[in-house]
Amino acid sequence: MSELELLRLHQVLALVPVGRTTLYELIARDQFPRPSKLGPRINVWSRVSVETFVRKKIGVLQASSVAQDTPADARPQPACAPSPRRKSGGP
Prior knowledge:
It contains three helices and three strands. With 91 residues, it is an alpha+beta fold. The chain has one domain.
């Protein structure tokens, strides 16, 4: 593999499990690396930038799954106000 490997859109979509529209929405929100233009209709991404994105997302997912695996009694419980009691009977 060369030091700088460039990927076309179909190759990026094979590495990132999202559709084309979602990918471009992520780019618009600066949540995914922007492509480089090689020509008027040729967009490419560096493999390193795409793989870095995937690794960061996996890290976030693993961190959130660890939080979900924490026993319920070890998690802080939200303070809830008791709900008002309704009087029984007719109007």
